[in-house]
Design brief:
Layout (H helix, E strand, L loop, with lengths): L4 H11 L6 H14 L15 H8 L4 H16 L8 H5 L2 H7 L5 H17 L2 H4 L2 H16 L10 H14 L3 H22 L22 H17 L3 H9 L2 H10 L10 H19 L2 H11 L5 H8 L11 H15 L3 H8 L26 H7 L6 H16 L8 H18 L1 H10 L11 H12 L5 H14 L3 H9 L4 H5 L8 H15 L4 H6 L2 H16 L6
Length: 562
């Protein structure tokens, strides 16, 4: 290495870092950064002659030198093309020294985190099989958490960075997760302990005699939110989700959600953000499939799982509604929409809700105290289609569209989805006065809304929204219509039982935006080009000519100009 000009210059530059003069160090770092502007220079790190300089840089008394060394080793790792090129990490014993950097200053610890992740993506065994690394990490966690009896809300950036690193590594494979479990158990056990704390009722929340059950300050909730984000990432894989189920984390998360319901003290702004995150996470789990939905039910109990969703979706109908509760409603809508995308979740969301007082909060021991305006979660979701708050109506329509399009229609799911329109939708429309005033004024002059079946009345209401100037509203309506067009009964509802629908959707002048034209084209494709839909069109003489017209629309393309 010394025989090459680049090698000799690099050794000279690194040797300048040994001085105590901070100005001289800054000059040396500047020259080193300039040297490494060319990618081909990083191969020098693999030279055995570089090992002592790298080691000295990692333990330098100057934080900028340590951060620079870790960052450039990380970059050298990303430049490698094969695992064999990472051998310098082993021969120079780099990784145990870098592991100690997790407890270093923030600038250094961040780079250590990134370096470990780079190694993990190239060859995770270099970390997972390194006993020195495991010992050092365990010592840091034991000293900072176990020995000092830290609570979850006292975790700082050092612990969170370590957990983030090993959560990311755990997502690589089941074997990687198994190797990371000793580090992750600190995270899991402290989260479940935090979620198991008793809470006070609203009447006693101000008492100073129970400080342990008082509400957390916003900063503490932010730490919990960071932990939940890590657990979500861990649960993004099938093996990670199994681990969360087996360790009771999912039960703990649900317990936190239940603790936001009356008569618990009303959640503050930061706690509401946490509840929204938990709502979306539970919904995403249920959306993965019926098996995961059943696991979630087993972990949380089928009776208590719908409670937080029903409560947050009821906020619009309660005095508790406020500006920022829109975010909670959107989270609940999205979660219920996700849950309904598989058979087991759809069954759960269509099951009648029991009075909230029939359930007891596991933390406070008190019954819940609120009313459900609608009989089940699907009815609650449908009711929000008609509210005056535009962003909620849009969110509910996209959720309904996602439910209708979630699975390939089959004998098990399609009848359940049809039941939403034939039994649940009419009941919602009868009880929601806001809809009647809007739908009556939107019906065509040739037929009043009272002459239409409820499901047809709903389609006319959707068509009235397509005349509005708000693009995001129209796109949400298109999502519902496309979902209906996926099903044979939906084709009949739209094309045969909704007067004027085929003419409207086939009229190219009713939509002017690029995205709107693409939405309409997708709806028509679903109507006439899906599965056995040809049989439906051919069975009714009055629909045959309409089918020919729509197929011509498809043949002409999305942006055809008559």
């Amino acid at each position: 290495m010394q025989s090459s000009p680049d090698g000799a210059r690099l050794l000279s530059l690194f040797s300048r870092l040994g001085t105590q003069d901070e100005d001289a160090i800054d000059d040396a770092l500047w020259d080193l950064r300039d040297f490494f502007k060319q990618d081909d220079k990083f191969s020098i790190f693999q030279s055995p002659e570089m090992a002592p300089f790298l080691q000295q840089g990692l333990v330098s008394p100057h934080a900028p030198v340590r951060a620079f060394t870790v960052a450039h080793i990380k970059t050298a790792i990303t430049k490698t093309s094969s695992p064999s090129e990472l051998s310098f990490l082993v021969t120079a014993n780099i990784l145990p020294i870098v592991a100690k950097c997790f407890a270093d200053e923030l600038s250094v610890a961040k780079e250590a985190n990134l370096l470990f992740l780079s190694v993990a993506h190239k060859d995770p065994s270099l970390i997972l099989a390194n006993q020195q690394v495991a010992t050092i990490i365990d010592e840091i966690l034991t000293k900072r958490i176990t020995s000092s009896s830290k609570q979850l809300t006292q975790f700082d950036s050092i612990e969170l960075r370590i957990f983030e690193t090993f959560v990311d590594i755990s997502t690589l494979s089941r074997v990687a997760l198994d190797a990371c479990v000793p580090r992750l158990q600190h995270l899991v056990s402290h989260f479940t302990s935090y979620a198991s704390r008793p809470i006070t009722s609203s009447s006693s929340s101000s008492s100073s005699s129970t400080p342990s059950s008082s509400k957390d300050d916003p900063f503490s909730v932010l730490i919990v939110l960071n932990v939940v984000e890590l657990l979500e990432k861990l649960g993004s894989t099938s093996w990670g989700l199994e681990y969360l189920f087996s360790t009771g984390v999912l039960t703990a998360m649900h317990r936190l959600l239940l603790n936001t319901l009356p008569p618990s003290p009303p959640p503050g702004r930061s706690e509401t953000v946490l509840a929204n995150r938990l709502l979306r996470f539970e919904g995403s789990i249920a959306a993965r499939g019926s098996a995961q939905t059943q696991q979630l039910l087993d972990a949380t109990s089928p009776s208590s799982l719908p409670l937080p969703f029903a409560f947050y979706m009821s906020l619009y109908h309660m005095d508790a509604y406020s500006d920022y509760s829109v975010e909670s409603l959107e989270a609940a809508i999205s979660a219920v929409g996700s849950m309904c995308t598989n058979v087991r979740g759809l069954d759960l969301c269509m099951t009648p809700l029991q009075p909230s007082s029939a359930y007891t909060n596991p933390s406070s021991g008190l019954p819940f105290e609120f009313a459900f305006p609608f009989p089940n979660l699907v009815a609650s979701l449908l009711s929000l289609l008609f509210v005056q708050t535009r962003e909620l109506s849009i969110c509910a329509m996209h959720a309904l569209g996602g439910i209708l399009m979630s699975e390939k229609p089959n004998l098990e799911t399609s009848p359940k989805l049809q039941q939403i329109f034939t039994s649940i939708m009419p009941e919602v429309m009868r009880t929601y006065s806001t809809f009647h005033s809007g739908a009556s004024s939107s019906s065509s002059s040739s037929s009043s809304s009272s002459d239409l079946h409820p499901e047809t009345e709903f389609i006319h209401y959707l068509l009235s929204l397509l005349t509005k100037p708000f693009e995001e509203v129209r796109y949400a309506v298109f999502h519902v219509l496309q979902g209906l067009a996926c099903h044979g009964w939906g084709v009949l509802l739209l094309a045969k039982h909704t007067p004027g629908f085929v003419e409207f959707v086939g009229n190219r002048s009713t939509e002017t935006t690029k995205s709107g034209k693409e939405w309409k084209f997708a709806i028509i494709q679903r109507l006439v080009a899906t599965g056995d839909h040809d049989k439906i069109w051919n069975n009714f003489a009055d629909m045959t000519s309409a089918a020919v017209s729509l197929k011509r629309y498809i043949a002409q393309g999305v942006f055809f100009v008559p």
